[in-house]
Amino acid sequence: MTQPQESNDTLIQAAGCVLWRRSPVDGELEVCLVHRPKYDDWSHPKGKLKHAEEPLDAALREVAEETGYAAAPGAELSTVRYFAGGRPKQVRYWAAEALTGGFTPNPEVDRILWLSPAAARSRLTQHRDRTLVDELLTSLRHA
Fold first, then answer.
1. Superfamily the domain 8-141 falls into
2. How deeply is 141 buried, as exposed, middle or buried, from its count of CB atoms within 10 A (0-12, 13-18, 19+)?
3. pLDDT tens for residues 87-139?
4. DSSP state at residue 76
5. How far apart are CA 3 and CA 113, in angstroms?
6. Could you give phi then psi for residue 70, rounded to 5 degrees?
7. Which residues, in sequence order, are bridge partners of residue 138?
8. Domain locations along the chain
9. d(CA 70, CA 122)
10. What pTM was estimated for this model as a whole?
């Protein structure tokens, strides 16, 4: 007996960015991670799409909401797929350079960190998020 396929109505659609900047101290590349107190985890800024919202628009909106920074999008990175609350979730990611702004803690994100790529890889809670840092570095080398 075959299992029925999940309908697209059950798929959680989300988008986010691997946010980066050049350090104001030494000019080295830094990656921004957000801490979500609800899950006590470190991740890239991301969130669910609103009704009829384009994924890139959602990714940039989530960056602004979670980090306080406006961002310039770059290359599209991998789409990450996993289950959340028993439902399939798909998160499309882009590289994005932080432009202007500043972080203010909020109920969703209470801290951010700007880390070297190696430190960001180590700090990320989910292993699936770590390859996105490598993809960012590759995209910047080919930009």
1. Nucleoside Triphosphate Pyrophosphohydrolase (3.90.79.10)
2. exposed
3. 999 999 999 999 999 999 999 999 999 999 999 999 999 999 999 999 999 99
4. E
5. 43
6. -80, 150
7. none
8. 8-141
9. 25
10. 0.91
